[in-house]
Design goal:
By secondary structure, this protein is α+β, with helices and mostly antiparallel strands. About 40% of the residues lie in helices and about 15% in strands.
């Protein structure tokens, strides 16, 4: 019953694998690791990491300064609910931005979707100094509007394009 090291919960194992895949993809895309996947500077605060969860307040699945990434590997999506969770976790961790990274079935990590709430997207866009049109075009964002409640609206881009956005926002902050 104990030992062996294998996870008993397949959903948890899938989630952990997705978090690690996102972390590894972003570290590689940003040039933070060498050809063996080892950090070039193990002390850099810019390295993408999966934090250990401590205490009652969840601090997100992956830390990619200045973003907290809430990673989801599930079939059916609940983006507005997930975004609320990501915002709470970003606050708990002391980060300015919380986003959701949802796995795209049977696709490479770079094809996963990164979801931004409208407020977060606007704050990032403003920090970068882009118009709404430029932001959408530069990073491949699409818009989802769900009813009249703007709290249920969001924008999404690919993990691949998010890596470019991450590099750019880090250059201005």
């Amino acid at each position: 019953m104990f030992g062996g090291g294998a996870m008993a919960n397949p959903s948890k194992a899938r989630g952990t694998a997705w978090e690690s895949a996102v972390r590894d993809h972003l570290n590689e895309a940003l040039g933070l690791v060498d050809e063996h996947g080892k950090f070039k500077d193990i002390f850099s605060a810019l390295n993408i990491r999966r934090p250990a969860q401590e205490g009652a307040a969840d601090v997100g699945d992956v830390h990619a300064v200045p973003f907290i990434l809430e990673c989801k590997d599930v079939k059916s999506s609940a983006v507005p609910t997930w975004l609320r969770q990501a915002h709470v976790e970003a606050f708990n961790a002391g980060y300015p931005f919380g986003v959701v990274v949802h796995k795209t079935r049977r696709a490479a990590v770079g094809r996963g979707r990164v979801y931004f709430g409208v407020r977060t997207w606007t704050r990032v866009r403003t920090a970068l100094g882009y118009s709404s049109r430029d932001m959408r075009e530069l990073y491949g964002f699409s818009v989802a509007v769900r009813g009249i409640d703007s709290g249920r609206w969001y924008l999404s881009t690919s993990v691949r394009d998010f890596a470019d956005l991450l590099a750019d926002i880090r250059a201005v902050l």
